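Action item from last meeting closed. Structure (803 res):
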């Protein structure tokens, strides 16, 4: 029987090739997009699922509450926190300290840069990573111990035993290999190829470590991870440790005026549910997963609705076939099974084409998402199973209603040419079209709003000059060497024709300086500290970046007094400190980041960070802490400028790689997530309108077929082609207009919510909805007109002769 159904399905598919092509095209587009999104979403949701102790491992996070009522949640903790958690809370089975680390490896006269962490001896106890060589219990116990990956072992030592071997880090420090671990899970928020012992840091800086462990409650620059005794006790343990800083660190709380509470973030939630990374590891967003997943479902739904419309539109052509089958004894159940088989045939065929199309689109999809999927990922058992279950759901969803309609024709009426159609069926088809265009018009509106926000962010005056400025990074030069030769490289850059200014600094707009620094401004007590972003700079920073002074002066080059006790703040800081306007701030005392001094200048507010954030208090002061050289140039091509900067680099920092960026492009990196959202939304809008138009085409074909005799009579009585086109178009355009009206409030609410993530944002103007509505109506009119004109031009004699 199934074989017979498939034969009939093939004959009908071939006979109605144009209908089949439209129907299949929409299904293929919908399934392909949904499969690609589900591939990406499954990968995102799989992060940190492979930890041996996963359910019991949590990161300790800190909510810092400032005296003015502001709060900020960080992924780090104060130094004494872990010590107290380990000693005083039996619910915690094990705890480890982690810290950022960016060592430079010197090996056989070459320099290498690997992803690295500093961790204490309990690291492997908490995370459960197995070692191929060495003891997990002692590998990170001693100072200057180093655990490396099997890939690094092969890279540096070949096939010989690596234990006991030495690697030289940062030019002169010898680390002994004490362990080798295998390949780590790719989907993890922790990324590292080597781990140095935390004891190494304390061995090099013993006084700093002693002071930090004793009183550094608000020095939030270490990570604490805990393994709980019971994986189900996260909330109970969190309640117990929440006020640890307020209780055990009460002296620091009283001294600063800051308050702090602790929370536990389960490791499997870190990647998607936390905006804060660990040691520069990757961070995802559950909102992005939900947004893209929802759009994928909507597109698949539109394709499914389109299939239903086109299937019912073909019912007129198949009515006699159904009538004959019923006369010959076919039951309604058998007919339903036949039509579901036909739907299954088309869905499976569409899925096969979608699979091939997915393989073809894999490379651009990887570029868009930043993933590295291969064809093996596409044909993996889990992903093919996901596609198979999608089709299993799609077949009854897309095929059941058409099967119900087609099998319900009464044979006597059908053979006489009277096709009974219920009002409910007509209402359902109209509802399907309205639903399709609600989604399509909504996506168009959302795309326009996102585009306007991106244009606003890219064109807004930022308060500094981001053009013609190259940033040269010195992060891959050892700390001492980079600072010893800072002035030498600055002088070499200033000697290049076309270079106007050069600044050696810690950060530039678009990058974070020393965030969350305590500040004690004049007029506030020592127990009433505030939090600022402190940026170590040199005397050339303000003019190099193109910042504008609102009051006071710039730093004086060569001034020892400025180096020791001068600050420049922005207008936001003057207001935040309670000093009023810029002029009032001049000469005021300020203590922050280990320096006491006075304000000598106030900058006009500028955007240190993207427009997602409001302008916050920023403090600049001369200090030797160099990460970047900012180079402003004019009258010279960018390529030539880079060549000259590279030539100077090779003389000053020979053997170390020079990394460079352009300030405007570097600042723009903060909007990568929003740019991807906009691009994806635009693509989804195009697909939705294309697939929705196919569904509309199905309904106009259905309408034309149902009214074929009426059209013939009207033409015989003198109706014009334009009149008939208007007749067929009016009711359908009303459906599209209703869809546009219905989607406006929902889209406004969704996009208003989306815009709230930006401190500076566009208003949602009424004309956006008008433009989107006009676009949807024009597309609908074009789609309807193609078939309506064809029906209007048909020979009325043939229409009136049809039975």
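Sequence:
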């Amino acid at each position: 029987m199934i074989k017979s159904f498939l034969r009939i399905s093939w004959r009908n598919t071939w006979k109605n090739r144009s209908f089949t092509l439209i129907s299949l095209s929409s299904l293929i587009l919908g399934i392909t997009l949904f499969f690609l999104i589900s591939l990406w979403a499954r990968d995102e949701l799989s992060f940190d699922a492979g930890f041996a102790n996963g359910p019991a491992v949590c990161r300790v996070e800190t909510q810092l509450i400032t005296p003015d009522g502001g709060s900020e949640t960080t992924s780090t903790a104060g130094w004494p926190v872990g010590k107290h958690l380990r000693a005083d809370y039996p619910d915690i089975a094990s705890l480890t300290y982690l810290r950022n680390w960016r060592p430079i490896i010197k090996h056989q006269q070459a320099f290498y840069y690997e992803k690295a962490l500093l961790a204490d001896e309990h690291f492997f106890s908490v995370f459960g990573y197995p070692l191929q060589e060495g003891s997990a219990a002692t590998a990170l116990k001693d100072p200057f111990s180093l655990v490396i990956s099997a890939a690094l072992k092969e890279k540096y030592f070949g096939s010989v035993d690596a234990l006991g071997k030495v690697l030289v880090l940062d030019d002169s420090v010898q680390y002994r290999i004490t362990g080798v671990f295998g390949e780590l899970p790719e989907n993890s928020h922790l990324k590292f190829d080597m781990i140095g012992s935390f004891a190494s840091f304390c061995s090099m800086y013993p006084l700093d470590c002693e002071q930090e462990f004793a009183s550094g409650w608000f020095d939030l620059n270490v990570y604490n991870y805990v393994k709980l005794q019971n994986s189900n006790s996260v909330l109970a343990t969190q309640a117990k440790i929440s006020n640890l800083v307020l209780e055990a660190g009460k002296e620091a709380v009283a001294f600063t005026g800051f308050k702090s509470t602790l929370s536990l973030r389960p490791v499997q939630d870190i990647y998607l549910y936390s905006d804060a990374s660990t040691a520069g590891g990757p961070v995802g967003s559950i909102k992005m997963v939900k947004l893209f997943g929802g759009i994928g479902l909507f597109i698949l739904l539109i394709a499914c609705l389109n299939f239903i419309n086109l299937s019912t539109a073909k019912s007129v052509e198949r009515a006699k076939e159904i009538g004959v089958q019923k006369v010959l004894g076919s039951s309604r159940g058998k007919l339903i099974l036949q039509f579901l088989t036909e739907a299954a045939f088309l869905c499976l065929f569409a899925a096969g084409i979608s699979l091939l199309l997915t393989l073809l689109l894999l490379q651009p999809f990887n570029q868009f998402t930043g993933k590295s999927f291969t064809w093996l990922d596409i044909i993996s058992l889990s992903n093919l199973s996901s596609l198979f279950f999608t089709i299993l759901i799609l077949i009854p969803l897309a095929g059941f209603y058409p099967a119900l309609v087609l099998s319900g024709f009464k044979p006597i009426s059908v053979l006489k040419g009277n096709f009974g159609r219920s009002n409910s069926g007509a209402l359902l088809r109209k509802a399907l079209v309205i639903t399709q265009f609600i989604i399509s018009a909504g996506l168009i509106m959302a795309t326009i709003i996102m585009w306007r926000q991106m244009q606003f962010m890219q064109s807004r005056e930022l308060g500094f000059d981001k053009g013609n400025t190259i940033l040269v990074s010195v992060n891959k030069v050892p700390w001492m060497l980079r600072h010893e030769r800072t002035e030498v490289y600055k002088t070499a850059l200033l000697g290049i024709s076309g270079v106007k200014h050069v600044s050696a600094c810690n950060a530039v707009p678009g990058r974070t300086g020393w965030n969350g620094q305590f500040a004690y401004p004049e007029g506030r007590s020592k127990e009433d500290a505030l939090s600022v972003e402190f940026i170590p700079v040199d005397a050339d920073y303000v003019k190099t970046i193109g910042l504008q002074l609102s009051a006071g002066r710039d730093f004086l080059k060569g001034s020892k007094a400025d180096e020791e006790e001068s600050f420049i703040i922005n207008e936001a800081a003057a207001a935040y400190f309670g000093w009023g306007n810029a002029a009032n701030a001049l000469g005021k005392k300020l203590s922050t980041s280990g320096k006491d001094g006075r304000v000598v200048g106030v900058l006009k507010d500028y955007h240190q960070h993207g427009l997602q954030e409001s302008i916050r208090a920023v403090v600049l002061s001369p200090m030797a802490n160099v990460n970047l050289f900012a180079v402003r140039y004019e009258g010279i091509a960018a390529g030539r400028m880079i060549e000259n900067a590279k030539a100077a680099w090779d003389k000053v920092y020979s053997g170390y790689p020079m990394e460079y960026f352009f300030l405007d492009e570097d600042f723009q990196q903060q909007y990568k997530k929003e740019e991807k959202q906009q691009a994806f939304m635009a693509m989804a809008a195009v697909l939705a309108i294309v697939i929705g138009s196919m569904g509309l085409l199905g309904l106009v074909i259905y309408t034309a077929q149902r009214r074929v005799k009426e059209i013939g009579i009207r033409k015989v009585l003198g109706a014009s082609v334009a009149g008939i086109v208007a007749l067929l178009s009016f009711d359908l355009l009303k459906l599209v207009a209703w869809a546009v009206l219905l989607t406006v409030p929902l889209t406004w609410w969704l996009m208003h919510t989306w815009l709230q993530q930006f401190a500076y944002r566009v208003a949602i103007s009424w004309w956006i909805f008008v433009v989107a509505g006009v676009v949807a109506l024009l597309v609908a009119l074009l789609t309807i007109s193609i078939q309506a004109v064809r029906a209007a031009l048909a020979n009325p004699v043939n229409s009136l002769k049809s039975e």
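Note appended to the action item: Residues 435-461+668-803 form one domain.
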